[in-house]
UniProtKB/TrEMBL annotation, chain A:
Protein known as: Multisubunit sodium/proton antiporter, MrpG subunit
TM segment ranges: 12-34, 70-92
Keywords for this protein: Membrane, Transmembrane, Transmembrane helix
Ion transport found in the keyword field: no
Species classification: Bacteria, Pseudomonadati, Pseudomonadota, Gammaproteobacteria, Chromatiales
Organism annotation: Arsukibacterium tuosuense
A Pfam short name: PhaG_MnhG_YufB
Keyword Magnesium belongs to the record: no
Listed GO MF terms: sodium:proton antiporter activity
UniProtKB/TrEMBL annotation, chain B:
Protein keywords: Cell membrane, Membrane, Transmembrane, Transmembrane helix
Name used for this protein in its record: Multisubunit sodium/proton antiporter, MrpB subunit
Entry GO CC: plasma membrane
Family stated for the protein in its record: Belongs to the CPA3 antiporters (TC 2.A.63) subunit B family.
Location (main, coarse): membrane
Residue ranges of the TM segments: 30-46, 53-74, 94-113, 148-170, 182-200, 206-222, 234-256, 276-298
Subcellular location field: Cell membrane
Signal sequence residues: none
All residue ranges annotated as the Na+/H+ antiporter MnhB subunit-related protein domain in the record: 178-294
Ranges where the MrpA C-terminal/MbhD domain occurs: 13-76
Membrane topology designation: Multi-pass membrane protein
Keyword Transmembrane helix found: yes
TrEMBL record, chain C:
Location of this chain's protein in the cell: Cell membrane
Similarity comment text for this entry: Belongs to the CPA3 antiporters (TC 2.A.63) subunit C family.
GO cellular component terms given for this protein: plasma membrane
Domain of life: Bacteria
Keyword Transport: no
InterPro entries registered for this protein in UniProt: CPA3_antiporter_subunitC, NUOK/Mnh_C1-like
Keywords for this protein: Cell membrane, Membrane, Transmembrane, Transmembrane helix
Source species taxonomy: Bacteria, Pseudomonadati, Pseudomonadota, Gammaproteobacteria, Chromatiales
Chain ranges passing through the membrane: 6-29, 36-58, 70-93
Descriptive protein name: Multisubunit sodium/proton antiporter, MrpC subunit
Membrane topology label: Multi-pass membrane protein
Location (main, coarse): membrane
TrEMBL record, chain D:
GO cellular component assignments: plasma membrane
Protein name per Swiss-Prot or TrEMBL: Multisubunit sodium/proton antiporter, MrpD subunit
Sequence ranges assigned to domain NADH:quinone oxidoreductase/Mrp antiporter transmembrane in this UniProt record: 120-411
Ranges that cross the membrane: 22-43, 74-91, 125-143, 155-177, 197-219, 231-253, 259-278, 290-310, 316-339, 360-381, 401-423, 444-467
Subcellular compartments: Cell membrane; Membrane
Record-linked PANTHER family: NA(+)_H(+) ANTIPORTER SUBUNIT D1 (PTHR42703:SF1), NADH DEHYDROGENASE (PTHR42703)
Family statement drawn from the similarity comment of this UniProt entry: Belongs to the CPA3 antiporters (TC 2.A.63) subunit D family.
Keywords for this protein: Cell membrane, Membrane, Transmembrane, Transmembrane helix
Topological type in the membrane: Multi-pass membrane protein
Amino acid sequence: MSVGGELSVISTLLSSALLLTGLLFFIAGSVAMLRFPDSYSRLHAVTKADSLGLGSIIAGLMFYCNWWQNLLMLLIWLLVLASGTVSCQLLARFCKTKQDQA
Amino acid sequence: MSLLLFDVLLCGLLLALALASVLSRQLSHAVILYIAFGLLMALTWARLAAPDLALAEAAIGAGLTGALCFTALARQGKLAASPTLSWQQRCWPALFVLVTLFGLLLLVLQLPAKPGPLPALVMQQLAASGVSHPVTAVLLNFRSWDTLLELLVLLLALLGTLQVAPAPVYQSSWVLSRSWSQLLAPLIIVLAGYLLWAGAHQPGGAFQAGALLAAGAVVLKLNHQLNWLAWRNIWVRFFAIAGLTVFVAAVLTAWLLSGALAEPVWLRWPPELAKYIILLIEIFATLAIAITLTLLVVAEQPATPLSLARQEDDEAADG
Amino acid sequence: MVEFSSSLNLFLATAATLVAIGVYGFIVGPEPLRRIVALNIISAGIFMLMVVLAYRSAGPDAVSTLADPVLHALVLTGLVVAVSATAFALALLARLGKTTADRPEEPGP
Amino acid sequence: MMILLLVLPLAAALLMLLWPRIAPLLALFSAAVCSFLALQLLLQVSEQGTRYWLLAGWPSGLAIAWQADTLSCLLILLTAVLQLLVGFYAFATRARDKLSQGFWPLSSLLQLSLTALWLSRDLFNLYVCLELLALVAVALVSLSGRKAIKPALNYLLLSLFGSLCYLLGVVLLYGAYGRLDIAGLVSQWQPNLLTNSALLLMSLGLMLKAALWPLHGWLPAAHAAAPAPVSALLSALVVKGPLFILCLLWLQLASTEQAQAMAPLFAGAGLAALLFGGWSALRTPFAKNLVAYSTVAQLGYATLALGLMLKFDQPLIFAALWLFVLAHALAKAACFLAIGEMSGTLGGKRLTTLKGASQTMPLAMFAFAVAGGSLIGLPPSGGFLAKWALLQGLWLQEQQLFWPLALVLATLLSAAYVFRVVVLAFDRADPVAPDFSPQVLPQWLALLPALAVWAMALFSEPLLLLLRLEAL
């Protein structure tokens, strides 16, 4: 994947910006996970920020790869998005039932 | 230089996670940190030119061990904070461990840098092994006896688990997660098939494929699917031991085929058939590994006579 | 080349430290589940030592020549053995938790 | 033939999982055939000399190495025969003891893993065998239900820790020499810091697994909690596996200086085990714990013999080491079966249950007394044979008064704990229920290994010759 040398300046800048944005979202999500008070807001922070973060990192990486790898990365992103959504819902429901019981 | 920076970061994170997992006050934190540690280990294997291990670690080490630990946590009931230890209880072991660490560092840093004779030997014999991926060749031809015993270890862990495991704690299933797991299933089967097929010439193989299949089956089973997948079903038992059975059958057949030789050699595959034998073993081993790992994670109380005494024991306790 | 060897030493030292951390966790405990996690950390350290040794035998240009496949195969075997043993230990632990949880309900002898 | 010895128990175990109904039959059949095959193999090897195999015919280093010398063959034979005996006992008492069906496949797998261990001469393969052995042993212990879970978990965790120590040592050796077969390592062996530490690490792990003093803490609880046939197998066979590897390491791999340096440590640990184990056996109120502590003490003899062997390099002491192991295996199997039978029939775990057992269950008590005689070392039992060989070996060295004296002290201790049971048994029995009718067959089965250990004296010449043929 080390074809980075052939990229134009704009592409490099763009991809770096995307990568940095993704990183920022990840860090924000992780900090929120540690700092937020209850399960719901943590879930909210983690799933949203991480989906977006992963998306922009993948977008940033797309400048370096061929179409086949890009397709795979997109697929991975979709899978992560969907499973993140499902597991977020599951956890939230679990929390809700526990709350109701208590 | 950037690679060195990456390495420093990776190692630092690994150590921090391991330390935090050991020292954390709550057991649940320890488990979560350990799972993160497992994922980073997979990354480390990839960094150290061991893609086979990265695949296996991601599936087995992080995924299944994590699921197992969480099941254990769930079974323990309420999450109590760990008993606090006095500083003496922490200090003396720490001192001892520091001395050990110093000794170990001294040792590992003086290991010679020259490679041993085996890698060259593997490359030299690779053509005769029937596969072109050296790790698979070592696993299923050069040191196949280890692999047979290892399959046995896996089966044994299952036997032991079935004997002792209490009834699993099921949460009620939910439509969305069930349909999502059903959606994932074909993808996982395709991926596992690919890994299995790839194992002959590139990273991948029975264990990785089996672990992946098991992960899919565990998710399905947690959603109340695959109800036939239980030890009391004779076909499940049959396939759980199929890996070993086919292995032994192949050994015996190969041994009988080589009977023409003055001294038949055990575990020797005939070179022209080696490829097919290894493929056959791998297919059945994958199925066996998948079933075994699934049952290990979602062990149900068997209705087979495997543990009659245990059930009576339980009934006595209930009565 | 300098970078290669300093990286390697770094990984070697990390492996040794992981083993030490695991040993500490195993000795201090105190819950069985944490001991099991600690055992897994020890085995991760040992496997890491093996993988670094394998990587080292390949030399600095590890992309072109392969790392020691024997060690990789041994680690794979070790991984499966470790996960089997962990699963069994966790099953025993779960059973133990159930037994101790049941005890108060039993009529005392 | 070699292959059948491994394939038969494996195939039997797999079939048992499919059809649990015929499990006992299969187990007994495979054990019987294996006993016969092992005897054949022993005869063949003692006539034609040691046999070597490189598995799958790959060049040395790449392939896993096997070796069948007389010692390995003797141990294989012992494993198969004890398996058969214990299997018969378990079959005869299955109705009363409610032994789980899980016992049968596990016992066959135990036989397989031990046979694989006795044959293997490859450090990593030995590690896999050790893990297999540990998992089988723990699964067997956990058969007896809830009371065994805690000891079983403890046993498993310590055993895993021991395996990891051993594995770390193996990895260090591989890092240094790049190979795993013992023969190959011997040819390149150099005594230095690296090999020293690797040997020490491996020994630490193996001593933990073999329950050698001072790492024996887990053994009494685990062995006492298991069902009687399982305790017999564990004490007689399972702890001997790591001991065997320990001997391989120190007698084959280690250089003379390393061995000399380690000798006093082993001898001291052996002596401490003898004294401590004997004393604990004298104090415990439970019958099975007494026998389990006696295992700790008797393993002390083997450790002591290993230490002295390393020090004096005397073939007679080597023979003594393995005579101890053989005699102890047979005697301890008899002890556990007899005690299990008595406490099963009389109902109770305490030693006081055995009061008057000489009148209520004379046969089982006789078996215990006869086996105890070998544990003490009364002539002409197997235990005596071993002790005599050890003393003879020491005699050949001058100025050795300390060790014989220590042996006498240890003998007195073991006599004390055996007589503790025997005296209790000869007390007047409490009146028994009118329908009291102990089963006779299991008692005879307990007596058989006890008689076998005394019969060892008849074969003392060939046994000594077999074991002296080669120092491993």
